[in-house]
Amino acid sequence: MNEQHNHTILERRELDMLVHQMQVEADRQKEEYERPVDEAGHMSDASLAQLAAYHDKYEAEILTQHQTSLQEKAEEHAADHQEVVSGYKAQTKAACEDQARVSESASQATE
Predict the structure, then answer these.
(1) Cα angle at 35 between 29 and 41, to 5 degrees?
(2) Which residue ranges does the record annotate as region Disordered (predicted)?
C-alpha cells in the first residue's frame, strides 16, 4: 500500500513537471509569435489583422494540444488507480474466502 502511495506521488510529480514544461513551452511560443506583432508598426492594418488571426489560431491549437495531453495523462493515471483498487479488492476477497474456509475447518474439527 505504501509502495503504491509512493508510486502515485511520483506519478503526480511527473504530471506536474509535464504541465510546467508544457506551460513554459506555450509561454515561449506565445512570446515568439507576439514579437512580430510588437515590431509590426510599419505593417498595414490588413496584415496586422491576418497576423493576429494566425496567432490566435496557433495559440488555440497549442492550448488544445496541451489540454488533450493532460487529459490523456489524467485518464491514464485514473486507470492505474482503478487497477490498483481492483487488485486490493481481489486480495481482500481472497483473504475473506480463506478466512471462511479456515473458520469452517475449525468448526468441523471441534464437532
Answers:
(1) 155
(2) 69-91
Q: Cell numbers of 64, please?
A: 488544445
Distance set, CA 12 to CA 20, 73, 74, 88 (Å): 12, 10, 9, 21
Backbone angles phi, psi at 75, to 5 degrees: -65, -40
In this prediction, residue 50 carries a pLDDT of 85
Q: Side chain identity at 93, as an amino acid letter?
A: K
Does the global pTM surpass 0.70? no
Which runs of consecutive H residues, i.e. helices, occur in the chain?
2-38, 45-110
Q: Counting every residue, how long is the chain?
A: 111
